[in-house]
Amino acid sequence: MTDIRNIVVLTGAGISAESGLNTFRGPGGLWEGHRVEDICTPEALARNRALVLDFYDQRRAALATVEPNAGHRALARLDREWKGGLLIVTQNVDDLHERAGAKRMLHMHGELMSAFCEHCGHRQRFGGAMLDGTHCGGCGAADTLRPDIVFFGEMPYEMDRIDAALGEADLFVSIGTSGAVYPAAGYVQQARHAGIETLELNLEPSAGSYFFHETRLGPASELVPAWVEEVLGK
Ligand code: BV8
Q1: pLDDT tens digits, residue range 161-178?
Q2: Domain tally, the chain
Q3: Annotated binding residue at 174?
Q4: Residue 62, SS3?
Q5: Mean pLDDT over all residues of the chain?
Q6: How far does the centroid of ligand 1 lie from the alpha carbon of residue 23, in Å?
Q7: Which residue positions does the secretion signal occupy (predicted)?
Q8: Which of 198, 202, 150 is nearest to 173 (CA)?
């Protein structure tokens, strides 16, 4: 690898799989049994609020039963020890990167542990069992809080910050994502057009593998610590 100063890392559900959280498109994936259209859209929330809130309540509850794995811990080590620029962009709505100690990161698709009020826009941390009936900390309403999750058709968060980081990057690393959902899936092409070195660490080839300079296949708990050791040794 050439001289690397600034790194952007994109993570997906695959980095949390070995912690015991389902991925979306694998066997028994989150969206089997639940059609995407039934869950992850503003229309679904309006049409069947109880179903959508229950889906996210269940996933939030699962967080309390799992721990970060070696992949999350390796990225947190990189965050502590890497002297150059670093931004971890996660598509995941779990809090495992933070619990492993990552700081230089953002959730482009929102967080299970956050909610916002559709009436007044107030955003609040929420770790409870059921969102429905919880009063908004802003306007006090009891049935207007929704999961702070980016649904299909909604604008992902912090796009400008992500684009700025990609504009400064020398290395783009994608970990544990199928490359199925845009605009995240397009970042590798953006990186290639900008002449940035690109590396994919994934259990199996993804929809974006064609665009990476290098793809390493295997579990994140093995590939990520090995890569972090390698890049810190540069
Ligand atoms: C938007 C939160 C307007 C919810 C999610 C072109 C440009 C822009 C938009 C679009 C476009 N074309 C189509 C669209 C619309 C749409 C889209 O992409 N549709 C797809 C289906 C074609 N996109 C949107 O609606 C987005 N917003 O477009 O706004 C706009 C317009 C222009 C520019 C900007 C914006 C919003 C999409 C966000 C939806 N919300 N998540 C929740 O979590 O419940 S999406 C969700 O699925 C994830 O967040 C992630 O983004 C996506 C993919 O999931 P992955 O994380 O990749 O997980 P998956 O199961 O698929 O794969 C797991 C991978 O891990 C596998 O490859 C597997 O091999 C690997 N793996 C498994 N185990 C391991 C492992 N790897 C390593 N180790 C292991 N142990």
Answers
A1: 999 999 999 999 999 999
A2: 2
A3: no
A4: helix
A5: 94
A6: 11
A7: none
A8: 198
188 in the same domain as 76: yes
Per-residue pLDDT, 38: 72
Ligand 1: residue whose CA is nearest its atom 52: 181
pLDDT tens-digit readout, 53-95: 999 999 999 999 999 999 999 999 999 999 999 999 999 999 9
Q: What is the mean pLDDT of residues 180-187?
A: 97
Cα separation, 116 vs 170, whole angstroms: 36
CA 89 to chain centre: 7
Q: 195 and 226: one domain?
A: yes
**What is the tens place of the pLDDT at every residue in 221-232?**
999 999 999 999
Phi-psi bin for 13: left (phi > 0), alpha (psi -120 to 50), beta?
alpha
Same domain, 105 and 120: no
Beta strands 110-117 and 123-125 are antiparallel
Distance in angstroms (rounded) separating the CA atoms of residues 169 and 164: 9
Q: So what's the pLDDT on residue 36? A: 67
Q: How far apart are CA 134 and CA 140, in angstroms?
A: 9
In this structure, what token pair is assigned to residue 186?
């397009």
Give yes or no: residues 204 and 170 share one domain. Answer: yes
Kind of pairing between the strands at 85-90 and 6-11 = parallel
Enter the tokens of residue 215: 């793809």
Please name the residue that has the structure tokens 């900390």. 137
Separation of alpha carbons 5 and 231, rounded Å? 10
Closest CA to 31 of 178, 168, 171, 148: 178
Range of the domain at 15: 1-21+68-109+156-234
Ligand 1, residue 201: give the atom nearest the CA: 77
Residue 119 shares a structural domain with residue 10: no
